[in-house]
Amino acid sequence: MTYRINEIFYTLQGEGAHSGIPAVFVRFSGCNLRCPWCDTEFAEYSTMDADAIIAEITGLYDVANERRKMVVLTGGEPSLQVDAELVKALHDSGFYICIETNGTHPLPDGIDWITCSPKMIESRKPEAESHPAPLALRKVNEVKVVFTGTYDPEIWRSRLEAEHWMLQPLRYTGEWLLESGIDEWEDDRNDNLDETVRYILAHPFWRLSVQLHKIAGLR
C-alpha cells in the first residue's frame, strides 16, 4: 500500500487539547470538501509506503524525548487514505497516533486520539444556505469547530460524542475573498476572535482553541 503524502514535519501541536505538545505531522494530500477558509496547501504529494513514512518520522524524532512520541495524521483529509496497515505499522514503531478528520469517512480501528472538525457544506456565496456535511463517525475524543458566526455550532452536540469541545475563531483567506468577488468583509468577519469569545462565555460547554503555531510563527 502506498500513500500520497504532502509533507512530514516536526513542530508543536497548535490546536485543541494537545496544544503545545511536540509532534510529527504527516499531511496527506487530497480532501473531499472544499472549505472556503482553508489555508492549507495539500494538493502536491510524493508517493510513500508505510516503511518510508516511518523512516522519515523516526529521523525527525532523533532528539531526547521523554514523552510519548506523538504522530498527527492530518491533511487534506487523512481518512481518505489511512488504513489498518499504516496504523499497525505506526504502533509497532512505538508511536501514539492522532488524526485530524472532518468525520465524513470511517476510520480504521486503533487510532489513539480522534479530533473531528465537522464542516458545513457552504456555498462560496456568503448569502447562500449551508447544511451539515454527513458524518461517518459518532464517538471521538475531541470536536473542534471553526466558528464562522453564520450558524450555531450547537448543532454538532446531537451528532457527536466527545470529551473535549473546542471552538476556533475563523480567518477568511485573501484567496477566498478574491475568488468570491467580495472586496472586503467587516472586521468581525475577518478576525472573529471577540465574537468567538462572546459565544463561549454564553455557552461555557465550549472551550477556546486558537492556532498557537501561527501565533508563535511555527508551521
Secondary structure layout plus pairing:
Layout: E1 2-12, E2 22-28, E3 46-49, H1 50-60, E4 69-74, H2 84-92, E5 95-101, E6 113-116, E7 120-121, E8 131-132, E9 142-147, E10 164-169, H3 174-180, H4 187-190, H5 193-202, E11 207-208, H6 212-215
Parallel strand pairs: 2-4, 4-5, 5-6, 6-9, 9-10, 10-11
Antiparallel strand pairs: 1-2, 1-3, 7-8
Compact description:
The chain is an alpha/beta fold and 219 residues long. The chain is built from six helices and eleven strands. About 9% of the residues have low confidence.
Describe the 3D structure.
By secondary structure, the protein is of the alpha/beta class. The protein has one domain (2-215): Aldolase class I (TIM Barrel). The chain has helices at residues 50-60, 84-92, 174-180, 187-190, 193-202, 212-215; strands at residues 2-12, 22-28, 46-49, 69-74, 95-101, 113-116, 120-121, 131-132, 142-147, 164-169, 207-208. The strands form 2 sheets. The chain has a 9-stranded mixed sheet with strand order 3-1-2-4-5-6-9-10-11. It has a two-stranded antiparallel ribbon with strand order 7-8. The longest helix is centred in the N-terminal third of the chain and has 11 residues, at 50-60.
